[in-house]
Amino acid sequence: MIKINTCPVCQSQKIEVLKNDSFSPPTFINDDVPPIDCTYPEERLWILFKNILKTNTKADFAMSLCGDCGFIFTNPRYELGDIETKYSTVSALPSAKKRKENSPPKHTEKRAARIYNLLEKYPPKNYQSVLDYGGAEGYNLSQFVKAKKRCGVIDQVHENLISGVEFLGKDFSEPSHKFDCILLCHTLEHIPEPVEYLKEISTHLSDDGVIYIEVPLGAWKEFSRIKEPLTHVNFFSEEALFNVAKKAGLNVLHLSTNYQWITHYNLWCINMVCTKKEVGELVNALSTKSQMLNRKYQLLMALKEPSILLKWLKKKLVG
Ligand SMILES: [Zn+2]
Fold first, then answer.
1. What is the dihedral of CA 102, 106, 109, 111, to 10 degrees?
2. From 92's CA, which of 34, 45, 98, 188 has a CA 20 to 30 Å away?
3. What H or E segment, with its residue span, contains residue 8?
4. CA dist., res. 302 & res. 220, Å (int)
5. What is the pLDDT of residues 176-185, one digit of tens each?
6. What is the pTM of this model?
7. Which of 70, 69, 89 is nearest to 81 (CA)?
8. Ligand 1 (ion): which residues have CB within 5 A?
9. What distance in angstroms lies between residue 55's CA and the mean position of ligand 1's atoms?
10. Out of 3.30.70.100, 3.30.1360.70, 3.40.50.150, 3.90.1150.10, which CATH number does the structure's domain 108-318 have?
């Protein structure tokens, strides 16, 4: 791990610490594997302390905000070797395997249709190929399959793919052609160097292709209440995600924040569509991190979403 004093996105030194968090190893830190029924945060803390930090004492993480680009991130940062350790450890843990088997993604068609319908507004002419990077079983591609597009998944783990979707390898070393559409869903929040990562992915995008990026709205509440610091390392506002895309040489066609279905529940997410081509100014105004951190903004979001309001009322009345 490495402690940094410049922003990982724009290299600014204007870094403000929003919050300091201290994490302790789980009670079973000396076990060879976590108990089969441990919780997700306990399991991640076990991986962090056992295989990355290799210590039994507490670890401190600063939640930092870049004053220039609005990027919120955990500090210290993971290095490439740490990330490899994380994924290789997860893939061998019985507890992680059991959790995945016990709760497969639900209503996958709903999410796939949402992504397909949004991308239909920004189609490259006669587009043919669609890639879901980190796409697991390929569920997000089901509507593209129906539309007879050539669909592929690149992922660290080779899952049983849905019909019509091809496994294209663990990384870009295998497919040689470029893609017209690339989906990157709930990935950038895990990546220590998001600009470099996006740059690399966009080299595999055709000249007039589009890339769809979906991340949690981490700048809202998530950054202030994480249970473990191994899973998410970036907490986006619209402003910060926009800046990541620009720094990666991409132009933003669409940017919006919605309360939407992901794999098991609804979550506030930022959706962005980018292209390598020059585009005009973004039509909708960008919400900055200060707007998104503001309670009035949160109230406004809640008012726009009746189900959140109902949930809140129920909590107040019942509990
Ligand atoms: Zn920055």
1. -120
2. 188
3. none
4. 12
5. 789 999 999 9
6. 0.90
7. 89
8. 7, 9-10, 12, 66, 68-69, 71
9. 31
10. 3.40.50.150
